[in-house]
Amino acid sequence: MRTALTELVGVQHPVVQTGMGWVAGPRLVAATAEAGGLGILASATMTYPELEAAIKEVQGRTDRPFGVNLRADATDAAERVELLIRAGVRVASFALAPKPELISKLVDAGAIVIPSVGAARHAEKVAKWGAHAVIVQGGEGGGHTGGVATTLLLPSVLDAVDIPVIAAGGFYDGRGLAAALAYGAAGIAMGTRFLLTRESTVPDAVKQAYLQRDLTGTVVTTRVDGLPHRVLRTSLVDQLEQSGRVRGLVRAVVNAARFRRYTGLSWLSMVREGLAMRHGKDLRWSQVIMAANTPMLLRSGLVEGRTDAGVLASGQVVGLLSDLPTCASLISGIVADAEKIIGSLGRVLD
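The chain above was modelled as a monomer; its predicted structure follows.
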């Protein structure tokens, strides 16, 4: 199956594994790459030395193309871009629109730049700055997400730009890939579906907690870090939703103290991180602090397996998943089913 995505990046299949913090590590990324898809390493939850080691590990596991997801607003974003260039990483992915100079530096070095966007105007902006493609995530997607469904957001972005568009939010099988290609997309990107694979390092008990959810098992909350965040419904999320300002601030400070011990960041650095993540929004101090230590809340659930004290990002698609395939069987099955569906559509015109 050849699309603008496979031609651009040099992968076999138009399937992308997104850069999920604490989930998209070297094992999952390499397994995705070996299966013919584009695996994206999540670096937002890594220190610079950890990212450097992770890139080397992926390259030790596979010689196929892969990407690294960067936080465009990270204080060391420029240094991380230099690392990707030196290491020869094929794709640089961004959760937020990167500065034009970062895009230019990557493009000049021969890297492929693929930011994630949530609106047509954002796609137009990064396309003008030189991005090679964009990932567009509809409201069904997990983690930070918008309120527009993929079926509406995708065509609006396709109409706005001439670069390849990769569809995300609600995809998990061959029907989704066939539908995305019919819209005009160059491929699909999936997070929750890859989280629930054998190569994912998420604890088995947490994976089972995901698999037990139905289509109403997620909720979009702003109580985690002040931004719309689609997560699994858990007791912690319920408490955050119901807590008042004082209680929310106390809980935020407690979590922030845990995050500070883990990372070694000073309180001043954490406040700066939280303020940087406000993105122009009017947040309470509890939300600013929570924004700074959201990675720790995610780590508690996705690494430590604490569903009672962690936040578990998830797309709505979790309600349709019931198994834990390998990356190889997942990707090959999606592509095979999509090819059958596309082939059968010819009969409609007979």
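The mean pLDDT is 90.
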